[in-house]
Amino acid sequence: FSLEEITVSRSLLKEKKISKSVKLDDSTPSSQDVPVAALTKSIPGSKRNLQRNPNDTLSSNIRENENTDSMNDRDRVEALTNKEKPIDNSGGCRPKSGFIGEMHIETVTKPGAIRRLKNFFGVNKKVKEIKVSITKEKFLEKSSKVGKKQLHNKKIAPIIIWDFGGQDVFYSTHQTFLTYRAIYMIVLDGSRTLDDPCPSEQYLPGKSEHKTARDYLLFWINTIVTYCKGSIQGFPKIMVVLTHKDQVKAHDVEERRQEIFAEINEMFKHTPLMQHLVIEDKIFVNAKDKNDTEMEKIKEVIISESERQPTWGELLPKCFIPLELEFASLTRRNIPLITLEHLKKVNALQPIRPLSEDELKVFLKFQHSIGKLLYFDQLKLNDRIILSPTLLIDAFKSIVTDKRFCKGDRKREEIWDAMGMRGVVSKEAIQEVWKRKKYIKFYKDKDYLLNVMTHLDILVEPKRYDSNRTRIPADFYYVASMVRGNDDSGYLHSTTFTQRNIAIAFQSTSLMIPPALSFRFISYCLSVWAVKTYGEANDDMLFHRSGVFTIDPSLDMYILCEDDKITVRLVHARTNALIMRDLASSINECLTSALEKISQLYIRTSSDQSQTNDESFVTRVCCSSPDKPCIIPFENLSHVGKIWKCSTHGIEHNIHMIKSWISGKDEDRCEPGCPVTNEEFLRELPSDRHLRRLSLMFSFNEVRELAIHLGSSVTDVDNTLHTSDPKIWNFEVIRQCRDSHAVTFKEIKDAIEATGRGNIHKLCK
Asked: Per the database record, which ranges form the COR domain (predicted)?
């Protein structure tokens, strides 16, 4: 659809006034529909990527950067006197344009155009320039011409091209751009074999030694397919293109082409990933030579694959077009972000039919799904629209970037060093950077941009509490993707570690877990629990793709993200027998839900419906060894007796403890092996959590009787401060018994049995 047909501000200078009204059958959103475009994205595999302008299109009929205007109901002319300095411009219109209220203003300086406008409006005053805006009538006239040409029924589609930098610090931003609606292109250096070490290496999960093109190819294909699951099998499509043909001897080109593509075919032919690859044409180009015949072949493949896209030809309401044009105009004038109120005013001025509030939301969500803009329908985020998604990336890059990009900038180098060592960036440092002239555009909307980054878990505001469990406001953010330190604390090999932990693993159903998903999962944990401090120096236990979090003073949670699984351990200060079953199962449910939501985040759709997909992770039980733990499926536990002995380490695991991860039925009796039948457990002092549960089992008089049986005097019990909540009083009485008389689980069990009050097995839940 040609924006040229709608752009009328300049044609105002040449057109005569229309004397008759123009009637358009355009009052309903579904009167005519236009096909939606496919998208193309480029993923780097070599230093020299295919050079394409982000505004290039595959059809000469598309001009995304053509000027479009906000509409008003009348012409607007502003005359300037001779005293004001004229601006010379032989084109008749200044390239500079203004935005007054909700109107787009063009400044006319060409004498002939000024003379015609003065005659048209009856202006006698001598002027050097005139400002002109569009009218409703002119918009209707141009719209009518577009309708007569039936351009909306032709298969013309704009193509948006994103070129990824590929630096590993940006992995956590991929979720913003990767979409199942796109066609992807991975570019490899064809002058090298797939197994040659890459000269410029970036971080890859699970690869500490030299990386090869084979490693990066596998990583990117897995990443794309994992992020972009759609409902149609085999999509998205991923093109693989070889470059650097000019660095291969002419007589060796065909041999190299066949060799590399044969290896790629061999890599994936027996995997589900093969159906996503577009490698039949075996394209090998010299990207320096625009006349290389295979460069044209790339265009042909993109067009062909675009027409095969499930979303190709998807019908969209014609009433979306005016706002799309408005957005294109705003972006062209370097307005990357607007408020929702601003958009509503622009929408209300549309001369054909403004969108309703619900339609406006659908429009924004669709534009978000195809990557044209960013709109988050969330509290604190739904009052703005990012028209240029690169704004978010530029804001992110000003804080978090590859170290080479901040050399010579002392403040940003300090930020980078702090993030690399501890994974933190101070809020004050961000403000200092954004107050600079270069980044001032971010400072204006700093609260919104930071809220978006925290929503996407690029930045995480930590949870910290004082001794009274009161939240302490944080003056910094965690940046999980920037933490590079490894765990050398010795925590995993501390005394009796295997007797103090229980573990599960979330096994990926894909071939690998993309780094950004791991970072986001750790960021989720950072947003819920405090990072544990450990050792003589009280160092934060946050490392590269792993961390230790404090659940309560006696219980930690250890997280380790690996290439194919995420391991979670609950570690008690004394013994795993004291880990409450309800707590373990609740944490399991919480983490499972978080992982599925994070996975779903990457599945972009144009509706409010979630894409139906298989589960991204399956849960397994791990043995308690921190070194290459044995794994057993949950369903196999039904065939295990009281003890499971892992094959590799020979560690015996109480089946009751293993099943703590599984939410069980609320029954009075436990299965064999529960803690109440364990002598080691019975010798322990109960935690506050255990006492809280115990206090909920009894009435006021029953707690009084139980406390006296446990050794408290009648006077001590009666002197306990009474509150309006009897449950709190119950808890305080039992807690004083424990603290004053070192009451163990065995003594509580004996007291309950002696008084005939309740069932001790409640403590196992």
From this structure: 318-464
Cα(599)–Cα(602) distance, rounded to whole angstroms? 6
Number of folded domains in the chain? 4
Give ∠ CA 330-336-342 in degrees, rounded to 5. 65
The reply to whether 645 and 695 lie within a common domain is no
Q: Give the domain extent around 440.
A: 389-483
Of the listed ranges 263-267, 268-272, 568-572, 690-694, the one predicted with least confidence: 690-694
Q: Calculate ∠ Cα 542-545-546, nearest 5°.
A: 45
Residues 510 and 607 in one domain: yes
Return contacts of 662-670, CB within 8 angstroms, 24+ apart: 662/585, 662/588, 662/634, 663/582, 663/585, 663/586, 663/588, 663/589, 664/581, 664/585, 664/765, 666/765, 667/761, 668/759, 668/761, 669/759, 669/761, 670/761, 670/764
- Of 162-171, 361-370, 378-387, the poorest mean pLDDT is in 162-171
For the cut 80, the answer to whether the pLDDT of residue 278 exceeds it is yes
- Alpha carbons 150 and 155: distance in angstroms, whole number: 11
Q: The domain that contains 178 carries what CATH number?
A: 3.40.50
Query: Do 526 and 552 share a domain, yes or no?
Result: yes
In degrees and rounded to multiples of 5, residue 200 shows phi and psi of -120, 105
Instruction: Say if residues 508 and 619 touch (Cβ distance below 8 Å).
Output: no
The CATH number of whichever domain residue 707 belongs to comes to: 1.10.533.10
Q: Whole-prediction pTM value?
A: 0.63
Mean pLDDT, to the nearest integer, of 408-416? Answer: 69
Range among 18-27, 362-371, 475-484, 675-684 rated most confident: 362-371
pLDDT tens digits for range 59-83: 223 233 333 333 333 233 333 233 3
Q: Which of 407, 322, 305 is nearest to 363 (CA)?
A: 322
Radius of gyration of the chain (CA): 33
What are residue 507's DSSP bridge partners? 565, 618
Confidence band of 705 (pLDDT split at 50, 70, 90): confident
pLDDT at 110: 82
> What confidence tier does 545 reach under pLDDT thresholds 50, 70, 90?
confident
Six token digits for residue 238: 């991923």
As a whole number of angstroms, the distance between CA 559 and CA 570 comes to 9
388 three-state secondary structure: coil
Residues 500 and 455 in one domain: no
- CA dist., res. 259 & res. 626, Å (int): 43
What letter would DSSP give residue 4?
A: G
Q: Are residues 474 and 501 in the same domain?
A: no
